């Protein structure tokens, strides 16, 4: 029996933080032998909000470098850049014609990003979930490993696949999200009531590229409470978040961690957590830098990935065009 297809993507829009790493990249690495994996750098999603062209290019390379540094093997998994495979935008247009505007108006991410009520958000931002559906549906994807916040977008991809199949005959596989329980939501360090986010400012996150000094400073200043006992208690959001990060980086169980911190205080926990993060990120940073200094190597990986992706995607697109009665 052939393996299930898993597809996921990250936007090359600046900082990649430990929330992205623990909530997404690490679970991809863990699943890489179990599934047939496709990992995309979604640059066309990034440009739905303004990007500086030079930084976009650099960030696209860096995202690919992070995939490789984290341990994704490009011999088995496909790693590619979205804009290098034209079928993504072509299928997105077709899917636009079966998407209801009401469906997109209900997307919570779009609503959040346009909360200020101004009407200068791009049409691309509104259409973002349809392009994401195209990403997923082009590859016969069965599984989409993402963070909790992307669940609604995957749900839309499922609905569009079903609607298209009903109207035009079975074409797309129906994808399912895989949401990792712990780590699906790493919260902000200075505001543990909300997801860790690069837009909330540098005190909120630890970037994969932060130096040891910065990591230590941010962890020591992280919001906790006035309690003393170190326990995994979701009601104590700040402490719970630090313990979750500890758990994901250490691979230890909750019981082991609680036992380890018996009769120790928050500052102890913070010191040990900072050490642990620095320990885990330092080798990763070295590898990222290695790839960033070897862009020719990155180009080769991405070119061969795009070729493999294009082969699958063009086939799906051809079938879609035939079903629609578009001359292809
Ligand atoms: N929207 C996703 C995010 O911001 C990124 C993404 C784009 C994606 N296309 C995808 C994730 C397809 C999974 C599958 O996290």
From TrEMBL:
What EC designation does it have?
6.1.1.2
List UniProt keywords, sorted A-Z.
Aminoacyl-tRNA synthetase, ATP-binding, Cytoplasm, Ligase, Nucleotide-binding, Protein biosynthesis
Reactions it catalyzes: tRNA(Trp) + L-tryptophan + ATP = L-tryptophyl-tRNA(Trp) + AMP + diphosphate + H(+)
- Specify whether Aminoacyl-tRNA synthetase is a keyword of the entry: yes
Q: Where is this motif: 'HIGH' region?
A: 12-20
In which broad location class does this protein mainly occur, judging by the first location in its UniProt entry?
Answer: cytoplasm
* InterPro entries the UniProt entry points to: aa-tRNA-synth_I_CS, aa-tRNA-synth_Ic, Rossmann-like_a/b/a_fold, Trp-tRNA-ligase, Trp-tRNA-ligase_bac-type, Trp-tRNA_synthetase
Q: Where is this motif: 'KMSKS' region?
A: 195-199
Q: Where does L-tryptophan bind?
A: 135
Give the residues the record marks as binding ATP: 11-13, 19-20, 147-149, 186, 195-199
One GO cellular component from the entry? Answer: cytosol
Picking any one GO molecular function of the record gives: tryptophan-tRNA ligase activity
Q: How does it assemble?
A: Homodimer.
Any idea what job this protein has? Catalyzes the attachment of tryptophan to tRNA(Trp).
- Database matches in NCBIfam families: trpS
| Protein name in the entry | Tryptophan--tRNA ligase
**Organism classification:** Bacteria, Bacteria division Kazan-3B-28
């Amino acid at each position: 029996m052939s393996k299930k297809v898993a597809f996921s993507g990250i936007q090359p829009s600046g900082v990649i933080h430990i929330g992205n790493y623990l909530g997404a990249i690490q679970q991809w690495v863990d699943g890489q032998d179990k599934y047939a994996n496709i990992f995309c750098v979604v640059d066309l999603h990034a440009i739905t909000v303004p990007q500086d062209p030079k930084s976009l290019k650099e960030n696209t390379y860096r995202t690919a470098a992070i995939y490789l540094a984290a341990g994704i093997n490009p011999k088995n998994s496909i790693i590619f850049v979205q804009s290098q495979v034209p079928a993504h935008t072509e299928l997105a247009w077709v899917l636009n014609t079966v998407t209801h505007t009401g469906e997109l108006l209900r997307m919570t991410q779009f609503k959040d990003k346009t909360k200020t009520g101004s009407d200068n958000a791009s049409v691309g931002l509104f259409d973002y979930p349809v392009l994401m559906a195209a990403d997923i549906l082009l590859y016969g994807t069965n599984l989409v490993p993402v963070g909790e916040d992307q669940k609604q977008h995957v749900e839309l991809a499922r609905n569009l696949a079903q609607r298209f199949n009903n109207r035009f005959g079975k074409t797309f596989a129906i994808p399912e999200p895989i949401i990792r329980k712990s780590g699906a939501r790493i919260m902000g360090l200075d505001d543990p009531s909300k997801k860790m986010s690069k837009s909330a400012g540098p005190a909120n996150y630890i970037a994969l590229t932060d130096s040891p000094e910065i990591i230590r400073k941010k962890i020591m200043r992280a919001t906790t409470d006035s309690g003393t006992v170190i326990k995994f208690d979701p009601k104590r959001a700040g402490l719970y978040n630090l313990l979750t990060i500890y758990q994901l980086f250490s691979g230890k169980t909750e019981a082991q961690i609680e036992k380890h911190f018996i009769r120790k205080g928050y500052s102890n926990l913070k010191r040990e957590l900072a050490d642990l993060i620095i320990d885990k990120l330092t080798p990763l940073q070295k590898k990222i830098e290695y790839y960033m200094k070897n862009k020719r190597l990155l180009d080769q990986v991405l070119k061969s990935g795009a070729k493999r992706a294009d082969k699958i995607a063009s086939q799906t697109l051809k079938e879609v065009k035939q079903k629609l009665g578009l001359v292809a």
